[in-house]
Amino acid sequence: MALGACHVMGHLELESSKVVYTEPPAPKLERTPESRDGFVWVAGHWESHGDQWAWIEGHFDRTRGGYAWNDGRWERRGNSWHWIDGQWTAGGSTTVRDHREVVAPTEQGPTVRDHRE
């Protein structure tokens, strides 16, 4: 019985997301510092605190062999916005582009896009 409770708690934690009913501000353009060997840049993002938005600055995170970083994003679902945490995905290389850049469909790797697309 205790094992089932642990499983449910873990499941709820994985499924939980921050939900808001006002559109987040457009992402800020960050001046990315020079690249650092063994690190990937994790872009900043907006966080909602009640009816206020606060910008969380980007930062470097240590790379993980064989994994690519995908930044978190705000995703619109009907009349609400859901925060999707950034995550490491197996395979590929990390490619971060300006969210306004048009990407040819033949390019490979994760693409960072404006949350309002």
Which terms summarize this structure?
117 residues; globular; disordered N terminus; 12% helix; 3-stranded antiparallel β-sheet; two-stranded antiparallel ribbon; mainly beta; 9 strands
First-to-last CA distance: 44 Å
Strand order of the largest sheet: 1-8-7
Question: Can you tell me the residue ranges where pLDDT is under 50 for at least 5 consecutive residues?
Answer: 1-16, 98-108
Looking at how many chains there are and whether they match, the oligomeric state comes to single chain
Number of strands: 9
Averaged pLDDT, please? Answer: 75
Cα radius of gyration in angstroms: 16 Å
Strand content: 25-35%
What's the main sheet like? 3 strands, antiparallel
From the spread of the alpha carbons, the general shape counts as globular
Helix content range: 10-25%
Which structural class matches the secondary elements?
mainly beta
Helix and strand sequence: HEEEEEEEEE
Tally of individual helices: 1
Give a verbal description of the structure.
With 117 residues, this protein is mostly beta strands. The chain contains 1 helix and 9 strands; from the N terminus they run αβββββββββ. The protein has one helix at residues 2-15, and strands spanning 19-20, 39-42, 45-49, 52-56, 59-62, 67-70, 73-77, 80-84, 87-90. Strands 1-8-7 form a 3-stranded antiparallel beta sheet, with no helix packed on it. The chain has a two-stranded antiparallel ribbon with strand order 2-5. It has a two-stranded antiparallel sheet with strand order 3-4. The N and C termini lie far apart (44 Å).
